[in-house]
Amino acid sequence: MKSMRKVYELLLSASKAHARWDYETSMNIVRSRKRLVILGLLALPALLFAVAFAADPTGGGLPGMLGGKEAYTPAFYDTWIFLISILIGLCAGLITGCIGAGGGFIITPALMSAGIKGILAVGTDLFHIFAKAIMGTTVHKKLGNVSVPLAIWFLVGSGVGVTAGGVINRTLYEINPLLSDTFISVVYVVLLGFLGIYALTDFFRLRKAGVDVGAHHGESPHGAEAASGKVGLPARLQAMSIPPYIRFDEDLVPGGKKIPAIFVIISGALVGFVAAIMGVGGGFLTFPIFVYVLGVSSFTTVGTDILQIIFTGAYAAIFQYAIYGFIFYTLAMGMLLGSLLGVQLGALTTKVIKGIYIRGFYATAIMAGFVNRLFALPKKLADMKYITLAPETGKALTTVGNWAFFVVVTIFALWVIGTFVARIGALRGEEA
Question: Does pTM surpass 0.85?
């Protein structure tokens, strides 16, 4: 039970680390007029694309690879799905800004619920993350924190992991598109089920104890010790004699620290594999692995994490999905627009809402995603002839899962936005 609890805390800290990166990159975009202009220029073709489909739903006048019915990766696309992508990005941004934990993990299940094939949802989410990274990350301010050897060896591993994850997703799709959807759904069922159960348990425990929490409650109290590399797993890994070695943190520790390169490669491979399979971005796991497993200081981790997100995201999005036609550019732009607004509203709302309520919605949103993918599985398994199920029953279960997910997420979004509007006077007073 303790080991499972540690895994949950690791995943939660990973989610929070990704949320911090997401918030920072979003703010960098919003505060820069130049970047907003670039975003507008990028979003304009997406809007025109959606309008074109509204005028000609058959997609007859558009290149097949862009989503026409005769594409190598056929998918039906219309203006409604574009609007849904903005709403999905908005809700993910609200979760990120309001809770301080990454909301990106709901994007792939949400896109699949909107009718997008799983592999397209993964590829599009990765492209959305990559686009946000190159637009909003101020790398030059962080490069002093980057350990170049650490980054290089990590990227070697992430390249291997991303390639493996991309090949698996594409191979399953080639065998049977339904098999690909089922595989991605199962991965999300396991992850969201695990996270959701522990998040709900935490919420009820804290509520019973009468403890209010903020966005960063739940960080490991041993984080600073683990980051020093002098105790626990980091100390054991750094003490092993497996050349070649990587030196890092020279500016913080006399002589720096060293660790066998193989552990950094393995970490990179794990992060890249998860990113390519789920479309959640490499930063989701990098920060906790660096700090709590490898013993890298937070100072060095921040810069290296930002750098790897750009390269891992680029390689995964472009070379594993885009060149094979598994990305919808229009959807990615819609999500980017929605998430930028959501992050701003969510971050402001945290100033006037008790953390315990936010945490409750966080747990509920995760469980809604879990129920959504769980209820979609019977129909997929029946369509592949793995189980026997009446078509009406499978369709009904899928519909229930979709409604449960979107109703919960919409209620959360309306609650946050409503609270923001109702308390805007208090927020103005705080700003003043």
Answer: no
